[in-house]
Specification:
The chain is mainly α. The protein contains 9 helices and no strands. It has helices at residues 2-14, 21-33, 37-51, 57-70, 73-86, 92-105, 112-118, 125-133, 141-146. The model has no long low-confidence stretch (mean pLDDT 86).
Length: 147
C-alpha cells in the first residue's frame, strides 16, 4: 500500500498535478501506518519547506501522537515547534500529546504548566490528571516518610 501511495504521488508530480495538503496528509498517514514515523516526519518537513504549503493540522498530530506513544520527548517537542512555525496556535490537544510523551518516557516535565499558561491554555480534567503524573515536585507517601 505504501509503495502504491509513493508511486501515485510520483506520477502526480510527473504529470504536473499540484500536490496539496490532502495528498501529503494521506502519504504521512501511510508511512505512519507502515511504522515509518521518521520517514513520515521528514516528508512532512520537506512538503512544508519546498512547497510553502501549510500541511494539515491532522498530519502534524498524527506524527506527534506516534512520537508520544513511544515516549520520544525530543521529537514531540520538535513537532510542537514545527506546528508553531507552520502557523498553528498551540492548543490543548498538542499539550496532551506532549505530556503523554513525558509520561511514557517516565520523565518529569519541568515547566510544562508555565508553558501552558504562557500559551493561555488551561488544563481540563484529563490533562490535569496527566500533569500530576509528570509533576517533578509532587509529594508521595515515601517522601513524607523521608522528611
Amino acid at each position: 500500500m505504501l509503495q502504491k501511495g509513493k508511486d501515485l504521488v510520483k506520477r502526480m508530480a510527473d504529470n504536473g498535478c499540484q500536490i496539496g495538503p490532502l495528498t501529503w496528509d494521506a502519504l504521512v498517514k501511510l508511512y505512519v501506518d507502515a511504522g515509518e514515523v521518521e520517514k513520515a516526519d521528514s516528508i512532512l518537513q520537506k512538503a512544508f519547506q519546498q512547497n510553502q504549503v501549510k500541511p494539515l493540522f491532522s498530519s502534524f498530530m498524527t506524527v506527534m501522537e506516534q512520537y508520544s506513544k513511544r515516549g520520544d520527548i525530543h521529537n514531540s517537542e520538535k513537532m510542537l515547534h514545527r506546528m508553531r512555525q507552520a502557523g498553528y496556535v498551540a492548543g490543548l490537544r498538542q499539550f496532551q500529546s506532549l505530556v503523554q510523551a513525558y509520561i511514557n518516557a517516565k520523565t518529569p516535565a519541568y515547566g510544562i504548566r508555565d508553558r501552558m499558561r504562557a500559551d493561555n491554555i488551561f488544563p481540563n480534567k484529563a490533562l490535569a490528571a496527566q500533569l500530576t503524573q509528570v509533576d517533578a515536585f509532587r509529594r508521595t507517601a515515601v517522601s513524607y516518610l523521608l522528611d
